[in-house]
Amino acid sequence: MRSLVALSIAGSLAVSATGAPAADFTAREVTEQLYRATGPADFSGRDLEGLDLSMIDFKKTRLAKAKMFGVNLSGSDLSGSDLASANLDRANIIGAKFDGANLSGVSLLRPSTTTGREAGGETPPSFAGADLTGAKLFGQLSRVDLSRANLEGATLAPFGKTGFIEDLFRTELEGADLDGANLGGSDLTYVSFRFASLKGASLKGAKLHNADFSKADLTGADLSGADVKDADFDGAILTDVKGLERLAGRERARNLSQ
Length: 258
Known about the structure:
258 residues
């Protein structure tokens, strides 16, 4: 009987107040481990869902395959960390730094990058030089720094691999810095690149159906083999763009001839 009572108590302690399973650590325990670590702390595969981990220096932490749904990373520095195949859906990443981090295969669906009260007032997240190959991204990512990032084979579309089917929503990269980024072979259907900078970026073989490049700067970008059916290039800067004459769906693209 005592063992059954003990099991019942242990089970109740493993459940949060909301009825959902508790994370493997508290936010304080994560902070303490990071403080004590002499090298990169290892939280690979651990459950950190919903924790407030804002304003923390993660010191190149290992977070591969970590469960981080809804985690608060606002203002935190994850530069150089390993987040391969981690789940960061609905995470708060306002002002977070992922520069040079390994985010290959990560799921980053509908993150919070703004409070919505003062549009453009917050510091956007930064992914400069990050590895986002094969990642799934969807949501509001305007003004983010993705310069030199590798998004080869990534999915930013509202359909298919991301699981979103609402045609009223699209990934927004408006005003984003994508200079030198690799978007080759990515699914960028419906993505908005309005006023974004894609100078020297590679979009070779990318799927650009209904993408919006209005007022975007594509100077020196490589669009060889890209599919631009129904994409809009109104006011876009296309100086020295490679592959313009051999674009798939070119006859369906809007404002390309200008």
